[in-house]
């Protein structure tokens, strides 16, 4: 389906507008946009790029059709057509990708595309991303297509920006500001989701509870700034060790939790790997080289568990035994 256009109005598919109004979050909205754009303006590829917080890069957040540049690809702003559109806040058409010197255009042409069109997404004069179309045909995009895509981008920009703000607020509400780990509120949400999957489909998951041995001594001897440095350094090590589908939380003070996809053996091995990595790390402060150890308690979801608290309490008991038996060890309960 294509949209009709004249100088005073455009016509969009009703289904697109209705689906957009019902989208639950930013990823779903971006996927909807990339899915519908080729049906509104003839294209073999559609994507949405957003500024990802890095000063000189954009990220492909949603993609439909030709995969010459995959979703989640990071694109440099310099030496790319999409980056130039982002910086200049001006729509561009390239109807002969074969001759282009732009890095992204070269990749698109290598993937079989011959034309592309990029338009900025702007809110209050600031560009936060782009809409991107590509075609297998040469000379695919003309002035009328540019007018239509620009109108769609201007219409979508307010909606997208609002959803990005909501996403960012939600992230802040669920993130510990010091360590950037997820917080206890997020633990409850994610933990209950995993428990529900365990109860319905028996998808196994485990919990690792950790705290830093004798952490109070760092605060008492060196001050709270050093204590904070220890927490931040420790958290960075955890994020380097855990898998992308595990979940890391700070639940308070020096107490942390990891929710692990897998059984207790997987979680126990992960806990030991973390413990050894932490024991080998050094926290530099002034002329001091500080070494820390951690104690871990591990448990897994069991048939008798009807709430997350029972799993949490069992992990806490295992952690208590690790500390009671000399610290710097892992106990499985």
From TrEMBL:
GO terms for MF: diguanylate cyclase activity
Enzyme Commission number, as recorded: 2.7.7.65
Catalytic reactions of this protein: 2 GTP = 3',3'-c-di-GMP + 2 diphosphate
InterPro entries from the UniProt entry: Diguanylate_Cyclase (IPR050469), GAF (IPR003018), GAF-like_dom_sf (IPR029016), GGDEF_dom (IPR000160), Nucleotide_cyclase (IPR029787), Rev_trsase/Diguanyl_cyclase (IPR043128)
GGDEF domain span: 203-333
Short name of any one Pfam family annotated for the protein: GGDEF
SMART domains referenced in this protein's UniProt entry, alphabetically: GGDEF
Cofactor(s) annotated in UniProt: Mg(2+)
PROSITE patterns the record matches: GGDEF
CDD domains in the cross-refs: GGDEF
Transmembrane segments: none
Gene3D superfamilies assigned: 3.30.450.40, 3.30.70.270
GO biological process, one term: cell adhesion involved in single-species biofilm formation
Group of enzyme by EC: transferase
GO CC, alphabetical: plasma membrane
NCBIfam families found in the cross-reference section: GGDEF
Protein name (database record): diguanylate cyclase
Provenance organism: Pseudoalteromonas luteoviolacea (strain 2ta16)
Classification of source organism: Bacteria, Pseudomonadati, Pseudomonadota, Gammaproteobacteria, Alteromonadales
